[in-house]
Amino acid sequence: MKDEVQSPQEEAPNTYWRWLVESWRYPLGHNPAEKWYGVVTLLGEDIVLFIGLAVAGNYIANLFDMPLVHHGSGATFWAIVILFVVQIITILCSMVGHLFVFGNTGGFWQYVNKVAQVTNWNFWIAICAFFFLILSLSSGLLGFGEGLVWIFYALFALGSFLLVVCPDPGTEKMIHDPFWGAVIYLVMVAVVYAIIWGIALSILINL
Predict the structure, then answer these.
(1) What is the distance between the alpha carbons of residues 83 and 112, in angstroms, rounded to a whole number?
(2) CA atoms 202, 185, 112, 150: torsion sign
(3) Closest CA to 27 of 37, 39, 15, 19
(4) Contact (Cβ atoms closer than 8 angstroms) between residue 124 and residue 151
(5) CA 115 to CA 95: how far, in whole Å?
(6) What is the per-residue pLDDT across 62-75, written as a single tens digit (0 to 9) for each?
């Protein structure tokens, strides 16, 4: 009877707002979530960030009346696509490393939730970056916006790395040394990033 009472309620997903707040307080804690929480959060952050980048990119393209820069909008679009692909690749590499260490990932969407949870401070970083990028149109604060964009992706990479070596509290047991999972993740990321960087340069040069 006691076991029956403890059942699903304890593992029931939080409301979206509560999940956000708990992720800010305990990024690596056990925080049950609906499947859509993570992907909606990541897409929302990306959209806010990408709008800011697109506006700033168009402003710079119009500011410098040069033939090369007239392609600023196209370059911004491809930069956005490439950065989004980098996020997906990073998540997949993290999943492989985590799978090696713990033998289970809980499924793709659940893992996306974990990545979103551990990197949810990006929610605020994306908003601040957006305002700095927009304000840069008249106040010269573009450097602050660009810096926050780099911090955004650095935190995303750090969170994805931490999930390789950190189990979900109380639900996962280690089957291999986390060091090797970290090595697998870093090697995969380095190889894939090098390929993506080569493709990105090719696209931007062609523009």
Answers:
(1) 16
(2) negative
(3) 19
(4) no
(5) 10
(6) 666 654 444 555 66
Tokens found for residue 28 = 């690596």
Q: Note whether 194 and 186 are within 8 A (CB).
A: no
Given a contact cutoff of 8 angstroms between Cβ atoms, the answer to whether 129 and 49 are in contact is yes
Higher model confidence: residue 3 or residue 32? 32
Give the span between the Cα atoms of 73 and 179, in whole angstroms. Answer: 42
- What is the reported pTM? 0.80
CA distances from 2 to 5, 6, 13 (A): 5, 7, 21
- Contact between 60 and 146 under an 8 Å Cβ cutoff? The reply is no
pLDDT (tens digit, 9 = 90+) per residue, 56-108? 777 766 666 654 444 555 666 777 777 788 889 999 999 999 999 999 888 89
Are the beta carbons of 142 and 136 closer than 8 angstroms?
A: yes
